[in-house]
Amino acid sequence: MSMLRLEGVTVRFGERAALDAVDLEVAEHEIVCVLGPSGSGKSTLLRVVAGLHGADAGRVFLAGEDQTGVATHRRGVGLMFQDHQLFPQRDVAGNVAFGLRMRGTGRAEAGRRVARLLDLVGLPDAQRRPVGALSGGEQQRVALARALAPEPRLLMLDEPLGQLDRSLRERLVVELRELFGRLGTTVLAVTHDQSEAFALADRVVVMRDGRIAQAGTPLEVWQRPASEFVARFLGFDNVVAATVRGDAADTVWGTLPVPAGTAQGECRLLVRPAGVRLVPVAEGLACEVTARTFRGDHVVVRLRPADGPGIEAACPLGGAPEAGDRVGAAFVADEVVALP
Ligand SMILES: Nc1ncnc2c1ncn2[C@@H]1O[C@H](COP(=O)(O)OP(=O)(O)OP(=O)(O)O)[C@@H](O)[C@H]1O
Protein backbone atom coordinates (compact mmCIF):
# COMPACT_ATOMS: atom_id res chain seq x y z
CA MET A 1 0.00 0.00 0.00
CA SER A 2 1.14 3.53 -0.59
CA MET A 3 1.96 5.63 2.46
CA LEU A 4 0.99 8.82 0.67
CA ARG A 5 -1.35 9.37 -2.24
CA LEU A 6 -2.40 12.62 -3.86
CA GLU A 7 -5.35 12.54 -6.20
CA GLY A 8 -5.90 15.55 -8.43
CA VAL A 9 -4.70 18.00 -5.80
CA THR A 10 -5.08 21.63 -6.83
CA VAL A 11 -4.09 24.68 -4.80
CA ARG A 12 -4.82 28.13 -6.20
CA PHE A 13 -3.52 31.50 -5.15
CA GLY A 14 -5.89 33.87 -6.94
CA GLU A 15 -5.91 32.97 -10.63
CA ARG A 16 -2.70 30.99 -10.44
CA ALA A 17 -2.57 27.29 -9.61
CA ALA A 18 0.46 26.58 -7.41
CA LEU A 19 -0.52 22.91 -7.74
CA ASP A 20 -2.53 21.84 -10.75
CA ALA A 21 -4.33 18.48 -10.44
CA VAL A 22 -1.30 16.67 -9.04
CA ASP A 23 -1.37 12.87 -8.73
CA LEU A 24 1.46 11.32 -6.74
CA GLU A 25 2.08 8.16 -4.75
CA VAL A 26 4.83 7.45 -2.25
CA ALA A 27 5.23 3.82 -1.18
CA GLU A 28 6.02 2.81 2.39
CA HIS A 29 9.81 3.10 3.05
CA GLU A 30 10.30 5.00 -0.19
CA ILE A 31 12.39 8.19 -0.44
CA VAL A 32 10.93 10.59 -2.97
CA CYS A 33 12.60 13.90 -3.82
CA VAL A 34 10.67 16.68 -5.48
CA LEU A 35 12.79 18.90 -7.69
CA GLY A 36 11.94 21.94 -9.69
CA PRO A 37 12.68 25.59 -10.31
CA SER A 38 11.67 28.28 -7.87
CA GLY A 39 7.90 28.77 -7.83
CA SER A 40 7.08 25.38 -9.36
CA GLY A 41 4.99 24.37 -6.33
CA LYS A 42 7.34 22.18 -4.30
CA SER A 43 6.74 23.81 -0.92
CA THR A 44 3.03 24.05 -1.57
CA LEU A 45 3.02 20.28 -2.16
CA LEU A 46 4.58 19.67 1.26
CA ARG A 47 2.27 22.15 2.94
CA VAL A 48 -0.84 20.56 1.53
CA VAL A 49 0.32 17.08 2.61
CA ALA A 50 1.11 18.41 6.09
CA GLY A 51 -2.30 20.06 6.32
CA LEU A 52 -0.76 23.51 6.64
CA HIS A 53 -2.70 24.46 3.53
CA GLY A 54 -6.04 23.17 2.26
CA ALA A 55 -6.54 21.81 -1.26
CA ASP A 56 -9.00 23.64 -3.53
CA ALA A 57 -9.67 20.34 -5.28
CA GLY A 58 -8.50 16.76 -4.96
CA ARG A 59 -7.61 14.68 -1.93
CA VAL A 60 -4.61 13.65 0.14
CA PHE A 61 -4.49 10.12 1.60
CA LEU A 62 -2.08 8.93 4.27
CA ALA A 63 -1.93 5.15 4.68
CA GLY A 64 -5.18 5.01 2.74
CA GLU A 65 -7.07 7.51 4.91
CA ASP A 66 -8.49 10.68 3.44
CA GLN A 67 -6.92 13.61 5.31
CA THR A 68 -9.56 16.18 4.40
CA GLY A 69 -10.28 18.13 7.57
CA VAL A 70 -7.55 16.36 9.59
CA ALA A 71 -5.37 18.85 11.51
CA THR A 72 -1.61 18.89 10.99
CA HIS A 73 -0.73 17.49 14.42
CA ARG A 74 -3.07 14.54 13.88
CA ARG A 75 -1.58 13.49 10.54
CA GLY A 76 1.43 11.72 12.00
CA VAL A 77 3.85 13.45 9.65
CA GLY A 78 7.19 14.96 10.60
CA LEU A 79 8.35 18.23 9.16
CA MET A 80 11.76 19.70 8.79
CA PHE A 81 11.65 23.00 7.03
CA GLN A 82 14.30 25.19 5.49
CA ASP A 83 14.60 27.52 8.46
CA HIS A 84 14.92 24.59 10.82
CA GLN A 85 14.50 26.96 13.76
CA LEU A 86 15.65 25.22 16.89
CA PHE A 87 14.55 26.66 20.21
CA PRO A 88 17.58 28.74 21.15
CA GLN A 89 16.82 28.77 24.88
CA ARG A 90 16.72 24.95 25.08
CA ASP A 91 19.70 22.63 24.92
CA VAL A 92 20.02 19.85 22.34
CA ALA A 93 18.04 17.33 24.39
CA GLY A 94 15.29 19.87 25.02
CA ASN A 95 14.97 20.44 21.29
CA VAL A 96 14.94 16.78 20.31
CA ALA A 97 12.51 15.81 23.06
CA PHE A 98 10.11 18.62 22.25
CA GLY A 99 7.64 16.58 20.18
CA LEU A 100 7.85 13.65 22.59
CA ARG A 101 7.04 15.76 25.63
CA MET A 102 4.14 17.34 23.69
CA ARG A 103 2.75 13.88 23.18
CA GLY A 104 3.07 13.01 26.83
CA THR A 105 6.03 10.63 26.58
CA GLY A 106 7.52 10.17 30.08
CA ARG A 107 10.80 11.79 31.00
CA ALA A 108 12.81 8.55 31.25
CA GLU A 109 11.52 7.14 27.96
CA ALA A 110 12.06 10.50 26.22
CA GLY A 111 15.63 10.54 27.56
CA ARG A 112 16.34 7.09 26.12
CA ARG A 113 14.92 8.03 22.75
CA VAL A 114 16.84 11.28 22.62
CA ALA A 115 20.08 9.43 23.32
CA ARG A 116 19.35 6.89 20.58
CA LEU A 117 18.48 9.59 18.04
CA LEU A 118 21.57 11.62 18.81
CA ASP A 119 23.65 8.49 18.22
CA LEU A 120 21.85 7.95 14.93
CA VAL A 121 22.48 11.46 13.63
CA GLY A 122 26.11 11.33 14.69
CA LEU A 123 25.94 13.60 17.76
CA PRO A 124 26.36 11.17 20.64
CA ASP A 125 26.28 12.69 24.13
CA ALA A 126 25.37 16.14 22.83
CA GLN A 127 22.29 16.37 25.08
CA ARG A 128 23.44 19.24 27.25
CA ARG A 129 25.07 21.37 24.59
CA PRO A 130 23.40 24.74 23.95
CA VAL A 131 22.13 24.82 20.36
CA GLY A 132 23.70 28.25 19.84
CA ALA A 133 27.12 26.65 20.21
CA LEU A 134 26.58 24.16 17.38
CA SER A 135 27.78 24.48 13.80
CA GLY A 136 25.23 24.77 11.00
CA GLY A 137 25.62 21.10 10.14
CA GLU A 138 25.23 20.05 13.76
CA GLN A 139 22.10 22.19 14.09
CA GLN A 140 20.69 20.52 11.01
CA ARG A 141 21.30 17.10 12.58
CA VAL A 142 19.53 18.22 15.75
CA ALA A 143 16.60 19.43 13.66
CA LEU A 144 16.53 16.06 11.94
CA ALA A 145 16.59 14.19 15.25
CA ARG A 146 13.75 16.41 16.46
CA ALA A 147 11.68 15.62 13.37
CA LEU A 148 12.38 11.87 13.71
CA ALA A 149 11.68 11.69 17.46
CA PRO A 150 7.91 11.15 17.32
CA GLU A 151 8.51 8.39 14.71
CA PRO A 152 6.42 10.00 11.99
CA ARG A 153 4.94 7.68 9.37
CA LEU A 154 5.99 10.20 6.76
CA LEU A 155 8.95 12.55 7.13
CA MET A 156 8.86 15.67 5.01
CA LEU A 157 11.98 17.69 4.40
CA ASP A 158 12.03 21.10 2.74
CA GLU A 159 15.54 21.95 1.49
CA PRO A 160 16.90 19.97 4.43
CA LEU A 161 20.54 20.77 3.68
CA GLY A 162 19.95 24.15 2.09
CA GLN A 163 22.16 26.22 4.38
CA LEU A 164 25.18 23.95 4.36
CA ASP A 165 28.31 24.08 2.29
CA ARG A 166 28.75 21.64 -0.54
CA SER A 167 31.12 19.10 1.02
CA LEU A 168 29.06 18.82 4.20
CA ARG A 169 25.90 18.46 2.12
CA GLU A 170 27.41 15.67 0.07
CA ARG A 171 28.44 13.81 3.21
CA LEU A 172 25.14 14.32 5.01
CA VAL A 173 23.10 13.20 2.04
CA VAL A 174 24.84 9.82 2.09
CA GLU A 175 24.36 9.55 5.85
CA LEU A 176 20.69 10.50 5.54
CA ARG A 177 20.03 7.86 2.93
CA GLU A 178 21.65 5.23 5.13
CA LEU A 179 19.77 6.42 8.18
CA PHE A 180 16.37 6.42 6.47
CA GLY A 181 17.10 2.97 5.08
CA ARG A 182 17.95 1.64 8.52
CA LEU A 183 14.87 3.22 10.14
CA GLY A 184 12.57 2.35 7.25
CA THR A 185 11.41 5.98 7.15
CA THR A 186 9.14 7.07 4.32
CA VAL A 187 10.42 10.42 3.08
CA LEU A 188 9.10 13.18 0.87
CA ALA A 189 11.83 15.77 0.40
CA VAL A 190 11.95 18.98 -1.58
CA THR A 191 15.12 20.44 -2.97
CA HIS A 192 16.21 22.55 -5.88
CA ASP A 193 19.62 20.88 -5.88
CA GLN A 194 19.52 18.06 -8.38
CA SER A 195 22.66 16.31 -7.21
CA GLU A 196 21.20 16.19 -3.71
CA ALA A 197 17.92 14.79 -5.02
CA PHE A 198 19.64 12.18 -7.17
CA ALA A 199 21.86 11.06 -4.30
CA LEU A 200 19.05 10.83 -1.75
CA ALA A 201 16.04 9.58 -3.66
CA ASP A 202 14.66 6.23 -4.72
CA ARG A 203 12.47 8.25 -7.05
CA VAL A 204 12.61 11.86 -8.19
CA VAL A 205 9.69 14.02 -9.22
CA VAL A 206 10.42 17.06 -11.39
CA MET A 207 7.85 19.83 -11.15
CA ARG A 208 7.03 22.65 -13.50
CA ASP A 209 4.33 25.28 -12.97
CA GLY A 210 2.40 23.21 -10.45
CA ARG A 211 2.47 20.01 -12.48
CA ILE A 212 4.65 16.93 -12.52
CA ALA A 213 6.91 17.14 -15.57
CA GLN A 214 8.48 13.73 -14.91
CA ALA A 215 8.67 11.08 -12.19
CA GLY A 216 11.05 8.14 -12.18
CA THR A 217 14.14 6.64 -10.62
CA PRO A 218 17.19 8.91 -10.73
CA LEU A 219 18.63 6.71 -13.47
CA GLU A 220 15.46 6.82 -15.59
CA VAL A 221 15.16 10.58 -15.34
CA TRP A 222 18.87 11.08 -16.01
CA GLN A 223 18.95 8.73 -18.97
CA ARG A 224 15.61 9.60 -20.49
CA PRO A 225 14.46 13.11 -19.66
CA ALA A 226 10.78 13.30 -20.60
CA SER A 227 11.03 16.72 -22.19
CA GLU A 228 13.36 19.53 -23.14
CA PHE A 229 12.30 21.30 -19.95
CA VAL A 230 13.50 18.38 -17.79
CA ALA A 231 16.69 18.00 -19.83
CA ARG A 232 17.58 21.65 -19.42
CA PHE A 233 16.61 21.62 -15.76
CA LEU A 234 19.11 18.78 -15.27
CA GLY A 235 21.72 21.01 -16.86
CA PHE A 236 21.81 19.39 -20.28
CA ASP A 237 22.13 22.20 -22.79
CA ASN A 238 23.04 20.30 -25.96
CA VAL A 239 19.56 20.37 -27.43
CA VAL A 240 18.88 20.87 -31.12
CA ALA A 241 16.01 20.51 -33.60
CA ALA A 242 16.27 17.27 -35.59
CA THR A 243 14.57 15.05 -38.12
CA VAL A 244 15.14 11.36 -37.44
CA ARG A 245 15.36 8.99 -40.42
CA GLY A 246 16.37 5.44 -39.62
CA ASP A 247 19.40 5.42 -37.32
CA ALA A 248 20.45 9.00 -38.05
CA ALA A 249 19.13 12.48 -37.41
CA ASP A 250 19.55 15.57 -39.58
CA THR A 251 20.44 18.64 -37.52
CA VAL A 252 22.16 21.99 -37.93
CA TRP A 253 25.22 20.19 -36.47
CA GLY A 254 25.15 17.70 -39.34
CA THR A 255 23.91 14.11 -39.36
CA LEU A 256 24.03 12.52 -35.88
CA PRO A 257 23.73 8.81 -35.09
CA VAL A 258 20.75 7.91 -32.88
CA PRO A 259 20.08 4.69 -30.94
CA ALA A 260 18.17 1.96 -32.77
CA GLY A 261 14.43 2.25 -32.18
CA THR A 262 14.37 6.06 -31.91
CA ALA A 263 11.00 7.48 -32.95
CA GLN A 264 11.08 8.72 -36.54
CA GLY A 265 10.35 12.26 -37.70
CA GLU A 266 10.83 15.71 -36.21
CA CYS A 267 11.90 16.09 -32.59
CA ARG A 268 14.24 17.90 -30.24
CA LEU A 269 17.43 15.97 -29.78
CA LEU A 270 19.57 15.90 -26.62
CA VAL A 271 23.23 14.96 -26.80
CA ARG A 272 24.73 14.35 -23.36
CA PRO A 273 28.18 15.98 -23.01
CA ALA A 274 29.69 12.49 -22.59
CA GLY A 275 28.47 11.72 -26.10
CA VAL A 276 30.52 14.47 -27.75
CA ARG A 277 34.00 13.25 -28.73
CA LEU A 278 36.73 15.61 -29.79
CA VAL A 279 38.44 14.62 -33.05
CA PRO A 280 40.68 16.41 -35.55
CA VAL A 281 38.83 19.29 -37.26
CA ALA A 282 38.64 17.52 -40.62
CA GLU A 283 37.01 14.43 -39.10
CA GLY A 284 34.03 16.03 -37.36
CA LEU A 285 31.89 19.14 -37.02
CA ALA A 286 34.37 22.05 -37.03
CA CYS A 287 34.14 24.06 -33.80
CA GLU A 288 36.05 26.65 -31.84
CA VAL A 289 36.65 26.01 -28.14
CA THR A 290 35.17 28.97 -26.25
CA ALA A 291 35.67 27.83 -22.65
CA ARG A 292 36.85 24.96 -20.52
CA THR A 293 35.68 24.23 -16.99
CA PHE A 294 37.36 21.91 -14.52
CA ARG A 295 34.82 19.53 -12.97
CA GLY A 296 36.91 17.37 -10.69
CA ASP A 297 37.20 14.11 -12.61
CA HIS A 298 36.67 15.60 -16.07
CA VAL A 299 36.74 18.86 -17.99
CA VAL A 300 33.74 20.39 -19.73
CA VAL A 301 34.66 22.09 -22.97
CA ARG A 302 32.30 24.57 -24.56
CA LEU A 303 32.32 24.47 -28.37
CA ARG A 304 31.02 26.96 -30.93
CA PRO A 305 30.15 25.45 -34.30
CA ALA A 306 29.69 27.65 -37.38
CA ASP A 307 25.92 27.12 -37.17
CA GLY A 308 23.42 26.28 -34.47
CA PRO A 309 23.59 26.32 -30.68
CA GLY A 310 26.81 25.81 -28.70
CA ILE A 311 27.85 22.33 -27.67
CA GLU A 312 29.26 21.03 -24.39
CA ALA A 313 31.69 18.13 -24.44
CA ALA A 314 32.93 16.18 -21.42
CA CYS A 315 36.62 15.34 -21.82
CA PRO A 316 39.11 13.38 -19.78
CA LEU A 317 41.39 15.54 -17.63
CA GLY A 318 44.48 14.99 -19.73
CA GLY A 319 44.59 16.50 -23.19
CA ALA A 320 41.49 18.72 -23.06
CA PRO A 321 41.92 21.56 -25.58
CA GLU A 322 42.34 25.21 -24.61
CA ALA A 323 39.97 28.11 -25.30
CA GLY A 324 40.65 29.33 -28.83
CA ASP A 325 41.65 25.90 -30.19
CA ARG A 326 39.86 24.54 -33.24
CA VAL A 327 38.57 20.97 -32.93
CA GLY A 328 36.14 18.60 -34.57
CA ALA A 329 33.08 17.23 -32.73
CA ALA A 330 31.83 13.69 -33.31
CA PHE A 331 28.73 12.22 -31.69
CA VAL A 332 28.11 8.87 -29.96
CA ALA A 333 24.66 7.34 -30.56
CA ASP A 334 24.32 5.92 -27.01
CA GLU A 335 24.35 9.42 -25.54
CA VAL A 336 21.81 10.86 -27.97
CA VAL A 337 18.19 11.02 -26.77
CA ALA A 338 15.16 12.08 -28.81
CA LEU A 339 13.02 14.15 -26.47
CA PRO A 340 9.30 13.41 -26.69
N1 LIG B 1 0.83 32.32 0.41
C1 LIG B 1 0.90 32.52 -0.90
N2 LIG B 1 0.18 33.51 -1.49
C2 LIG B 1 0.24 33.72 -2.82
N3 LIG B 1 0.97 32.99 -3.68
C3 LIG B 1 1.70 31.98 -3.16
C4 LIG B 1 1.71 31.70 -1.76
N4 LIG B 1 2.53 30.65 -1.56
C5 LIG B 1 3.01 30.30 -2.76
N5 LIG B 1 2.51 31.09 -3.73
C6 LIG B 1 2.80 30.98 -5.16
O1 LIG B 1 2.62 29.63 -5.55
C7 LIG B 1 3.62 29.23 -6.47
C8 LIG B 1 4.36 28.02 -5.94
O2 LIG B 1 5.07 28.38 -4.77
P1 LIG B 1 5.96 27.35 -3.96
O3 LIG B 1 6.48 28.07 -2.76
O4 LIG B 1 5.19 26.12 -3.72
O5 LIG B 1 7.13 27.07 -4.99
P2 LIG B 1 8.52 26.33 -4.74
O6 LIG B 1 8.69 25.42 -5.90
O7 LIG B 1 8.56 25.76 -3.38
O8 LIG B 1 9.54 27.53 -4.86
P3 LIG B 1 10.95 27.79 -4.09
O9 LIG B 1 11.91 26.77 -4.66
O10 LIG B 1 11.29 29.17 -4.51
O11 LIG B 1 10.70 27.62 -2.63
C9 LIG B 1 4.50 30.44 -6.67
O12 LIG B 1 4.09 31.10 -7.84
C10 LIG B 1 4.24 31.29 -5.45
O13 LIG B 1 4.42 32.66 -5.75
From TrEMBL:
One of its GO terms (molecular function) is ABC-type quaternary ammonium compound transporting activity. Its EC number is 7.6.2.9. Transmembrane segments: none annotated. One of its GO terms (cellular component) is ATP-binding cassette (ABC) transporter complex. Residues 4-234 form the ABC transporter domain. It comes from the Bacteria. The keyword Glycoprotein does not apply. Keywords: ATP-binding, Nucleotide-binding, Transport. Pfam families: ABC_tran (PF00005), TOBE_2 (PF08402). InterPro entries: AAA+_ATPase, ABC_SmlMolc_Importer, ABC_transporter-like_ATP-bd, ABC_transporter-like_CS, Mo/tungstate-bd_C_term_dom, P-loop_NTPase, Transp-assoc_OB_typ2. This is ABC-type quaternary amine transporter. It comes from Streptomyces cinnamoneus.
